[in-house]
Q: What sequence folds into this?
């Protein structure tokens, strides 16, 4: 699978925030999540057949989602949905800033950006 943002562009945009040996895996996972959120329309249409506007947004979302997955890996990969310790509790679910859509955990602003492509609507 070819991710929607390549490793070189990711490094240009985000520098060394993510170890280089993890970038490809994160970009592939982000691209698969984008496919899920867009009902696989991008794969069906072909990335090259999208408008420049759509391509730009999808590349941005792929990079930001990969970074989000890296920064929040501890929580995203945890089998627990909530836990408490000494009276403080943490619940890992949708919030004001983060949502779970079709099994994909993503920031609300990033999902809204992806929706601007018109590829996330069920009705198409």
A:
């Amino acid at each position: 699978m070819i991710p929607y943002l390549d490793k070189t562009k990711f490094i240009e945009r985000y520098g060394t925030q993510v170890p280089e040996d993890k970038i490809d895996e994160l970009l592939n996972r982000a691209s698969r999540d984008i496919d899920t959120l867009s009902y696989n329309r991008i794969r069906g249409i072909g990335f090259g057949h999208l408008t420049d506007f759509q391509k730009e947004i999808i590349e941005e979302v792929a990079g930001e989602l990969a970074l989000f997955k890296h920064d929040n890996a501890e929580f995203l990969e945890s089998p627990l949905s909530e836990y408490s310790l000494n009276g403080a509790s943490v619940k890992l679910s949708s919030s004001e800033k983060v949502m779970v859509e079709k099994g994909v955990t993503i920031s609300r602003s990033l999902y809204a950006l992806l929706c601007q492509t018109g590829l996330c609507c069920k009705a198409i």
